[in-house]
Q: What sequence folds into this?
């Protein structure tokens, strides 16, 4: 059954997580620089630094430190950030929803704009809409997300100021207190319609900037897969039977063409979690990616490990979701799974 | 004599850009009358499949094809019809493809595809009615468990089953003409023979005209009333099946006939490596001229 393969994938993902945790744990510790010294600043005395090192078990052997980390992890404790001086889990709980919200809206834009663009290109292959679509897709792919961020800020925040260029909400709107940390959901739950619209308003530019490269990639993949499918006998048959061209494009040819595209889209979405950093920086977005870079610069060991693990987990979960989706739209895989 | 359902006159087709073109069909003319079984025979690359595809309106859209002449079907010209031709001629003509398994969409169940086909004939048909008609159509092509077949994907059925599904779909909208492009070539010989027999029976019963595209003279002999021999984009000989098999006049037809493997005859005759240039003009057997109505 599908459940069996799902369990299998979850098991594999857990093994990958263990490997990643060891790697990042070791890498964070071999980076040059003394985390305790960086945390306490140049004015701290040698005794203070030594005390902090002892408190954090920094002088112990690596395997011992890893063991301590695992013991803490089993209690749901990822350690304490040297930078914010708060538990890493608290930091993540605060910053992760902002990044996830941004990435999810980006992914929606990527699908809603990228796929139709690809379908249009394939449908009008070799004609004007195709040339235009391909040009847009190519420019979208080649321009880095932070450049898009700046361009969008200039165009829609400065020359034609219709969108806010910074933050998640206007100061006049009270920050929603939970339950999810996703402002869109929280404000909706709180019944604050104006706040919801404002949060959405703030999301447009950063989400679009982050979505551009995946959007271009989605358009290009959809186009080339659609063109492959257009050559297949079953599309010729659909045309011979006089199915409407647009229906063939959006249904008959799109479904088989979407299977390989979906796999890549999943990876693009996961990659967004990491790529979000520059966009978060440009738009002053209080997200996890920005937090991750700041803690790496400060060599904030526990925070680095925690952030990397969370992003890796998001990546793996995304992969599993994509696999399940692919098997849902591809009957060949779904039914083969039933036998194996 | 019955009226022609399909008349192709002086059909020319070239591939290539606007400046450099290679002509592959050099003025094909043929006709198929109502309830008649006509075969278009030739070797690979002779132009038989592109002729059928043009008639189905499948090639006109490509920017690299340039067609002229006329393909008239019920007064609708498939050459001038452009993009919408397939829809305008509706379900009066249907087509069966070479490989039935790849001609069915792998991501939809047969049920969905059948509904779509029936809907192309009758946009107002309800799902329940479509399913009923589909079941009846599948039962008619001797598919043992039509309900189960409808709930299957093409890759779950055998090639022979898929071929039957294709035939059922093709005949579901009661077309006046069925085009069959080497039906079942992708299947084994026994299944192919069964399919042709089934196709023959059903079209005979309903009075559906058939244009069979084939390179297999054995198949043609059993199936067709009339035969056109196509060679290098030209019709070289045209006659009733009996005339053609008993007194082939064009050297190419003779070469084709000699190429039929016989159990008794010791091996294949020696054919030149490259097909020879047969310069002889079109040979039309007695009683097989153009229908008078088609010339106007």
A:
């Amino acid at each position: 059954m599908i459940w069996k393969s799902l369990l299998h994938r979850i098991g594999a993902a857990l093994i990958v997580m263990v490997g990643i945790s060891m790697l990042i744990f070791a890498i964070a510790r071999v980076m040059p620089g003394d985390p305790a010294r960086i945390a306490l600043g140049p004015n701290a005395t040698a005794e203070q630094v030594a005390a902090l090192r002892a408190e954090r078990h920094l002088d112990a052997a690596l395997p011992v430190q890893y063991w301590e980390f695992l013991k803490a992890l089993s209690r749901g404790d990822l350690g304490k950030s040297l930078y914010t001086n708060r538990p890493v889990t608290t930091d993540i709980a605060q910053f992760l929803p902002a990044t996830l919200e941004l990435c999810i809206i980006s992914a929606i834009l990527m699908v809603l704009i990228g796929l139709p663009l690809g379908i249009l290109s394939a449908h009008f292959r070799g004609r004007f809409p195709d040339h235009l679509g391909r040009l847009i897709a190519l420019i979208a792919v080649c321009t880095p997300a932070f450049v898009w961020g700046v361009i969008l800020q200039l165009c829609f925040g400065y020359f034609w100021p219709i969108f806010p260029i910074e933050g998640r909400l206007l100061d006049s709107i009270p920050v929603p207190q939970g339950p999810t940390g996703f402002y869109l959901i929280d404000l909706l739950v709180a019944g604050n319609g104006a706040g919801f619209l404002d949060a959405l308003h703030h999301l447009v530019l950063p989400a679009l900037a982050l979505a551009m490269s995946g959007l271009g990639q989605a358009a290009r993949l959809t186009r080339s897969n659609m063109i492959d499918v257009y050559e297949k006998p079953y599309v010729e048959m659909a045309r011979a039977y006089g199915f409407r061209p647009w229906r063939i494009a959006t249904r008959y040819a799109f479904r088989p063409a979407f299977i390989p595209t979906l796999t890549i889209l999943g990876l693009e979405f996961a990659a967004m979690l990491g790529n979000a950093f520059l966009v978060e920086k440009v738009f002053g977005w209080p997200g996890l990616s920005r937090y991750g870079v700041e803690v790496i610069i400060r060599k904030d060991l526990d925070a680095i490990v925690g952030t990397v693990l969370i992003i890796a987990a998001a990546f793996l979960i995304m992969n599993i979701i994509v696999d399940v989706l692919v098997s849902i739209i591809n009957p060949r895989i779904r039914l083969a799974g039933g036998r194996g | 004599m019955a009226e022609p359902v399909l008349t192709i006159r002086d059909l020319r087709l070239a591939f290539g850009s606007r400046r450099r073109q290679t002509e592959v069909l050099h003025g094909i003319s043929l006709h198929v009358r109502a309830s008649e079984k006509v075969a278009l025979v030739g070797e690979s690359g002779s132009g038989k499949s592109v002729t059928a595809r043009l008639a189905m309106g499948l090639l006109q859209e490509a920017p690299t094809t340039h067609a002229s002449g006329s393909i008239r079907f019920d007064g609708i010209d498939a050459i001038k019809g452009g993009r919408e031709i397939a829809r305008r001629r509706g379900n009066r003509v249907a087509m069966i493809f070479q490989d039935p398994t790849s001609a069915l969409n792998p991501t939809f169940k047969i049920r969905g595809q059948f509904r779509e086909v029936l809907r192309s004939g009758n946009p107002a048909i309800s799902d329940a009615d479509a399913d009923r008609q589909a079941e009846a159509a599948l039962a008619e092509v001797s598919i043992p468990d039509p309900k189960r077949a409808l709930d299957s994907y093409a890759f779950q059925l055998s090639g022979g089953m898929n071929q039957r599904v294709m035939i059922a779909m093709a005949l579901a909208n009661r077309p006046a003409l069925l085009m069959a492009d080497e039906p079942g070539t992708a299947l084994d010989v026994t299944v192919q023979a069964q399919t042709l027999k089934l196709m023959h029976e059903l079209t005979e019963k309903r009075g559906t005209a058939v244009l069979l595209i084939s390179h297999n003279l054995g198949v043609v002999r059993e199936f067709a009333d009339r035969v056109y021999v196509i060679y290098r984009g030209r019709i070289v000989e045209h006659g009733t099946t009996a005339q053609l098999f008993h007194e082939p006049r064009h050297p190419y037809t003779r070469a084709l006939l000699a190429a039929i493997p016989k159990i008794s005859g010791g091996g294949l005759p020696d054919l030149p490596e490259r097909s020879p240039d047969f310069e002889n003009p079109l040979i039309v057997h007695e009683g097989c001229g153009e229908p008078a109505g088609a010339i106007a």
About this structure: The radius of gyration of chain B is 20 Å.
